[in-house]
Amino acid sequence: MGTVAQEAAIDFLKSEIPVEEDEPLLLSGDVNTGLVLVDIVNGFCTVGAGNLAPVAPDRQISEMADESVKLAKMFCEKKWPIYVLRDSHHPDVPEPPHPPHCITGTDESELVPALQWLENEPNVTVRCKDCIDGFLGSIEKDGSNVFVNWVKANEIKTILVVGICTDICVLDFVCSALSARNRGFLSPLKDVIVYSPGCATFDLPVQIARNIKGALPHPQELMHHIGLYMAKGRGAKVVSHISFDTATKGDITLNNEI
Q: Model pTM?
């Protein structure tokens, strides 16, 4: 299928399953809000960093990282809570159907250079996870959940989620958080919000996938859209505009379109 035909097909599918945006998000100190960064690590974002890293510069991934850095800086300025998930796997514990990736102790499992400073911020909780779903990956051996404890300790009513991949790790985490909220396990959490320009996924065109044993085609733009659509369908809010209360210091406006 040619590029023009591919774009037409994607436009058609988007018209059939549109992602209806919620109102632009205004962040202020009136509602306790936590920022969740999902897997913005070298192994998924830095060119040539590993089996699941991009093989060439990727606009969607770069923009996701840039937006996440902006948000992280603002949250740290305001001393608002941040929960950072880092994909980190034991070398002897595979995660089928994926090849080995983000092995614990390697550069792949480290945050991208533009976010590594977060590790030393007092308002940041870093959780290394060994599975796709960061909610499940936050469960300790004693059955407690670091993410649940983070929500409760900070009395968080809204979480803002960014990261990679929109339709895999981000979606799984969002769905689990929504289910836990609905069951009353995440009180006082009310809203789970996905910031669409702050999310990205990978690109694996069909002509390349058919030459890789066991690989499934994964058109980036379409799967990003489907990830947002599925999150919305599970009860998340999806926004493409974020602003900070102009009455507070260090205000910025993030005005990207889906």
A: 0.92
